[in-house]
Each structure stands twice: as C-alpha cells, then as structure tokens.
Amino acid sequence: MLDAAERLVAVKGFDSVSIRDVTGAAKANVAAVNYHFGSREELLALVMTHVLEPLCAERIALLDAVGKQISVEQAVAAYVNALAPAAARIGMDTPLFFRLAGQILSLPDEALPPAMKEVRRETTRRFLAALGKDLADDWAFFEAGLAHSLVVEADSKNINTLMTRWITFGIRGLGATAGKREDDAQGLLFEF
User: Fold this and answer.
1) Is residue 16 in some structural domain?
2) What pLDDT, in 10s, does the model give residues 104-135?
3) Cβ of 140: how many Cβ atoms within 10 Å?
4) Residue 103 located in a structural domain
5) 18 with 30: CB under 8 angstroms?
6) What secondary structure does DSSP assign to the chain, as a single string?
7) Residues ≥6 apart with Cβ < 8 Å to 91
8) pLDDT in tens, 132-183
9) What angle do CA 106, 110, 115 make, to 5 degrees?
C-alpha cells in the first residue's frame, strides 16, 4: 500500500489521493489502511517521511563534506545533487523519487508531520547558516521552483540537464542576492 500511495501522490499530489485510490491500486480493502497505518493521514505522513528523511540526510552529508567555508555554488550543488543519491539510498526509482520530492517540497511546513517539519527546517537552516547571508526568501523561491520542476519534469529524459539548469539558476539568483550581480538570472528562469 505504501508503494501504491507513493505512485499516486507522485502523480496526483497529496490532496487528491483518497484511501479508495490507494486500496484500489494496491488491490487491498479499505480496512487495511486503518489496520496497517491508522488513517489516510498517517499513510501520507509515512510517504513524506520515506522521501524527506533520506533527502535531508543526503543534503546535510553533502553540505558537511564541503566544509565550513562554503560558496553559493557549493551549497546549491549540494542541495540539488542530493536527489539521486537519496533515491538510491532507499532503492526508489529516480523519477518517482524526484516527483515525490517535488510534491513534498511544495507543501508548507504545516502540512508535514512534526518530525519532518523540524528535519526540513533544520536542513534549510544549516544551508542558510553555511552561506552566512540573509537569503531566506531567495532560498525559499529557489526551493519552490525546484520542487515544481521536479513534479513536472521528473520523467523527462533530460532530467540531468534540468538539474544542471537549476544549479546554474540557483547560483546566479542567490549569487546576485549576495552581491555578485548576474543580469541573466531571470532570463535563465524562462529557459526552463
């Protein structure tokens, strides 16, 4: 049922997946969700945790590997490049993981299970602290754009190109905020 829920959420989003959708896809009865997970909300919380926990752990590991002196380039690359290793860590198909990550990252913190809300906030805090600049709003914009593109383009044959573009966009956009003005950052956004 967890696999069925993950596939459905990846395509339809959290708000559009019902217990009947999940049990139909898993060829199980409705009572099985309550028996195994307690409720629809608990099942969806498990989907969020299954993806967000390894993704945040991989991001922190890549951030820590860079060291204390970190550039915008290194931070953005660590953040984006954590996606594929996190998918591999849990043995999930990469496009499915990317799409699920996009669905989860597009949720407000309040929609996450409390433990995952803290994990995501701590991950963001660590990245922003490593950059040593007040980039919270710009980082949120970068993350939201990345999340949306993961949902839309996860099955693309050009996912590596997409990730490279997001790294470039993040570097230009966040670097511009940090005082290294890149006039073509907005133009790059329209290339997506």
Assistant:
1) no
2) 999 999 999 999 999 999 999 999 998 877 88
3) 11
4) yes
5) no
6) -HHHHHHHHHHH-STT--HHHHHHHHT--HHHHHHHHSSHHHHHHHHHHHHHHHHHHHHHHHHHHH-SS--HHHHHHHHHHTHHHHHHHHT--HHHHHHHHHHHHTS-GGGS-HHHHHHHHHHHHHHHHHHTS--HHHHHHHHHHHHHHHHHHTT-TTHHHHHHHHHHHHHHHHHHHTT---TTHHHHHHH-
7) none
8) 778 888 889 999 999 999 998 877 677 888 888 889 988 888 876 554 444 5
9) 100
Structural domain contains residue 171: yes
Which domain, by its residues, includes 186?
Answer: 45-191
d(CA 72, CA 92): 29
Residue 31 resides in a domain = no
Which distant-in-sequence residues (6+ apart) come within 8 Å of 90 by Cβ? 50, 51, 54, 97
Distance of CA 51 to the CA centre of its chain: 8
Number of domains making up the chain = 1
Query: What's this model's pTM, rounded to 2 decimal places?
Result: 0.86
